[in-house]
Request: fold
Amino acid sequence: MYNLARQLLFKLSPETSHELSLDLIGAGGRLGVNRLLCKAPASLPVRVMGLDFPNPVGLAAGLDKNGEAICGLSQLGFGFIEVGTVTPRPQPGNPKPRIFRLPEAEAIINRMGFNNNGVDALLARIDAARFDGVLGINIGKNFDTPVERAEDDYLLCLDKVYHHASYVTVNVSSPNTPGLRSLQFGDSLKHLLDALRLRREDLEIEHGKRVPLAIKIAPDMSDEETALVGEAVFQAGMDAVIATNTTLGRDGVAGLAHADEAGGLSGAPVRDKSTHTVKVLADTLGGRLPIIAVGGITEGRHAAEKIKAGASLVQLYSGFIYKGPALIRESVDAIAALRSSKE
Reply:
């Protein structure tokens, strides 16, 4: 059924089909039919960041930026949902067209630029959804906020989303907001993480709960840079690293239509690079901090590879677009088989 739906949706422009798909998933969730259309994955509970997940396969940020289909997406079998990236103020993002499919490589290039309706609109939708599962909220800075003042935007978003989130992801790795990736390094990273930690301490007292903080990093760093970032995230008292965002590289897509478009590449071509980043982080952290792996999972075995490399959870995005809800169940099954083989 999904293959037929995908054939029809892929006749539309990528952004139009994306919006239509979210509308349909959201409507299916409100009507309660998504569970009837999709076989639920097996129960595979895992505890990470002090949170209990019904299974370790989640939805990555970027697909539902504005929280329009939280319940509908959850009903497809995801163990957790991450919405956003959200910014303090609404912003339109980059000019269209800004999403490009590369179906021969099961890949997508996007330069969306944090298009979203703003944090207040997101929170209104979250309240309306009354979702009781694990919900991550991914936060970023507005495009016109200078990098040297980015901390202000992150702290404002953290203040607002704290009460609504199971965990908060700090996105410092999108390639589509000028200067953003510079926040991953050196004093810029340390100052931002220290500010987030101190604000979280205040919010924990105010709300009477500790909300985990995860940092999402890029796959385009050297091993040494990745190790330094991982150590900095641990030393700053963060709760997880998400590896990885999209890549600026074009390995695996050279010569394909749209391969030269600007933006971040996701899907199958980023798989090995993302998994390598997970391995470097796992070696650096030695179990001191959980890793959430995302990038290039298009088959269940790829999800298991991420877990074997050192991840505790995985997230889907492009693979979900190409393969549909069956990939969730397939990924859970593959991780369950890997877990059984270790017992």
